[in-house]
Design goal:
The radius of gyration is 20 Å and the shape is globular. 35% of the residues lie in helices and 17% in strands. With 384 residues, the protein is α/β, with parallel strands linked by helices. 47% of the residues are buried. The protein is built from 14 helices and 11 strands. A 9-stranded mixed beta sheet has the order 1-2-3-5-4-6-7-10-11, sandwiched between helices. Helix 12 links the parallel strand 10 and strand 11.
Length: 384
Amino acid sequence: MSYNNNNNAEKSRQTVQTCCSDEENSFMLDDHEVITEDGYILKLQRLVKREEKISPEDAKKPAVLLVHGLTCHGDNWCLPHVSLSYLLVEQGFDCWIPTLRGSSMKHVSLSVKSKKFWDFSFHEMGVYDLPAIINYVLDLTGNANLSYVGHSMGFTVLFALLSTNPEFCSKVNVCVGLAPAHYGEYIRGLVFKISLGLGSCVGASSYIRRHPITNRTTHKHIRYVVPKSKQIGFLSGCCMHPSGEVKSQNSTQHIEKEIYWKRSANKTSIKVVCHGLQCFSAGQLQMYDYGRSTNRKVYGQPTPPKYEAVHISTPVATFSSTGDLSCTPQDVARLSGELPNLISHIVIQDKSFSHSDFVFGENARVQVFQDVILILLKYNKNIK
């Protein structure tokens, strides 16, 4: 069944304020809703300068999508003092920030309490969420194409889309993958190494894949496991990143802990996690593995099909860091070598720069964002 987005812009547009920071006086978020072909209602926000009202002239600006990673939310791109989105708007880009299914908790007919609502992996995010978002932005702005920045799973979902629907390659003029989650051969960290083996074993369970990871964000869970008197000290003493890494208070990438914890973990389906672990364990990015019997019914073959990089003609730049335990430079280098139109693979030589720091890191502006902006400007030469 298909759902029409044509009337969404007017009825769902709402101007709201960004996160609390000095920038809140300079920027606003214009809210939109996008409905996917399978009925999920996604939150899509457009970052604009407060003094500039949205006008037809905005359609002339090059559009860029900033897509979040696993269990994150579009708001992650609007942290105070650490925001790529603010820099892009200052450079003259039309910046759009979507929130994918799971983190977006609405559907045209399904209840979020139903098992069917949670029966999705990153495949559905790629083949349903991104086409709806990309087409919506291009239709509204009148642009022929847009640029794309994806963090971790935010890159994986685009890879799934472009490899299975190559016609979308012409709609994305350049893609930047920040710590792209693709291969896991060189993953470091005990939590991840233990998780790899479990992913394939439990991934085929219908119970597991149809339930959300959590109904509470990480900082709310802490309230149940850390005594109230210790919570402030716990939050200020360390920062647990989605990748499973723990950073001390002395880290060069120290950020405002309360803000991070409130924004770092949102709801998603366990099937998404199982799918990622299956791919890491199999050593290739492939569609969801339901087991040989169900695979034959779903795919017509005993093993899940692979997402093939050869179909992706879009120029792609990748970034990795020596301090990233989950998406290591070696694994990102392998992915980069398979991309037909690779621009560059930039490695951050900083063992304190972790997986989340590509979005949240205090030094990300210097170590990552400047290079990202230069790449985007190169492929959007008409920018004013």
